[in-house]
Amino acid sequence: RRNGKNSKHQPPPGPLAVPVLGHLHLLEKPFHHSLARLAARYGPVFSLRLGSRDAVVVSSAEHARECLTEHDVTFASRPHFPTMSLMTYGGTTVGNCRYGPWWRLLRRVSAEHLLSPRRVSAMQPAVAAEVRAMVRRVCRAAAAAPGGAARVQLRRRLFEVSLSALMETVARTKTSRAEDDADTDMSPEAREFKESMDVLMPLLGAANTWDYVPMLRWFDVFGVKRKIAAAVSTRDALFRRLIDTERRRMLDGGDVTGSEEENTSMIAVLLSLQKSEPETYSDNLIMSMCYSMFAAGTETTAGTTEWAMSLLLNHPNVLKKAQAEMDASVGTSRLVTPDDVARLGYLQRILHETLRLYPAVPLMVPHESTADCTVGGHYVPSGTLLIVNAYAIHRDPVAWEDPAAFRPERFEDGSAEGRLLLPFGMGRRRCPGDTLALRTLGLVIGTLIQCFDWDTVGGADNVDMAEGVGITLPRAVPLEAMCRPRQAMLDVLQKL
Ligand code: HEM
After folding, report:
1. 3-state secondary structure of 151
2. Start-to-end Cα distance in the chain
3. Of 186, 135, 244, 182, nearest to 483 (Cα)?
4. Using one digit for the tens of pLDDT, what is the confidence trace for 42-74?
5. Ligand 1 pocket, 190 CB below 6 A?
6. Is 433 in the pocket of ligand 1 (CB under 6 A)?
7. Which of 222, 385, 452, 453 has its CA 20 to 30 A from that of 206?
8. Residues 6+ apart with CB under 8 A from 20
9. Phi and psi at residue 58, in whole multiples of 5°?
10. Cut 0.80: pTM above it
11. What is the helix (H) or strand (E) element at residue 354, kind and residue range?
12. Burial of 428 (0-12, 13-18, 19+ CB in 10 A)
């Protein structure tokens, strides 16, 4: 039927739907695996009915390209989900809002003013300070451990460093850093944000079915909506305080220019735009930007570092090769810097291979069409959700030899050229934070492999690589590892 004469007028194939739920009952978590199984049966372009919404699921590089290049504008919108709207100022954030002038404004602000390569370079000292603080804490733990090797809760450490780095680039909460013996170095503001997300995320998960089955919304199931509203107002009170603090700091210290640039937070950049165009760059827009940066940047970065370290623990030969590259290129008399990271080719390949195997947003973010079109020769009407299974595309055996194997060498000499990798999405809704993400990932992983030797806990052969459930591809089991400062780096580490 897919290649039938009239397929232009036929919807893509798909399973039989039941009333009310459509195909929701067929979807098991994690969804990317469930959707890959359906693709094996119905093909690389198939349709689903998710409660009251029609969706098309694309699982091949060819059709992802078709949707996000040829039909880029048609699929440039986002669906509105009532639960999500409660958290995203009525669905008006850059990642959630519909395609149109408002999105164009927010996108320009994020891509040009907040996340441009120049701004990302200016943020590096703040990111590096957070990474150094993490290394100091891990060293302290190792020094106190019997035999000099500490058991490190890597998930927690990597989450904290990712959130803290982002907090410093968004708001500069640690302008007067006072290093103490605390086991965590998150600022009170970072901790507060984490607490608000810890409340919100499970509620969001619980309320998710509403988005597809409107009938359930009539009953504000278990008062979830009220709880979400309360958690959102706590979160927004924090953002307001961050904005007020930065505004006061700017009044005291003047504008954001010249040499100040390096130490400038995203909120300060937005406040200086506000000065010239107060109506456009309102406090509400600034709050929405703060939320977008944290929501899009924290779990994705933290999760990718956790998968990268898991893969390195299971492939000690890759870890050794990366350490050898580091020693040859950076040496052992100083810490790796943000500028070194781009020159470390093997480290970069490790990051690409990690993002291929474990793209942090495996189904990307749903797109929505605003006009009728055809995909793979099938008719897709306006208003259809587009779900791209990046995870399945990255492991397609037709494109990738031995696709499940972790082999950074596959990116050597441009041999992976032409193969589609879309951990950051594609087209006009592509992730504007990719430069910041890759630089942070490189610095975190690079520093951890330069400073420490790593081993599995209890001498286990392998780290368990089971996937958990969640939008950002979490590991099922939080990663822990044994870590020992590298002999050759002891001098540098002692001076940190
Ligand atoms: C490893 C880290 C990251 C990964 C894998 C990732 C991946 C993605 C993906 C797949 C999308 C959806 C693209 C699409 O719909 O086509 C996205 C959107 C977005 N990301 Fe990222 N991201 C990461 C880090 C970041 C960071 C650090 C920031 C900013 C601080 C950020 C900001 C955004 C924003 C604002 C959007 C929405 C774009 C729009 O709808 O126009 N991301 N990201």
Report:
1. strand
2. 65
3. 135
4. 999 999 999 889 999 999 999 999 999 999 999
5. no
6. yes
7. 385
8. 51, 213, 215
9. -115, 130
10. yes
11. helix 345-357
12. middle
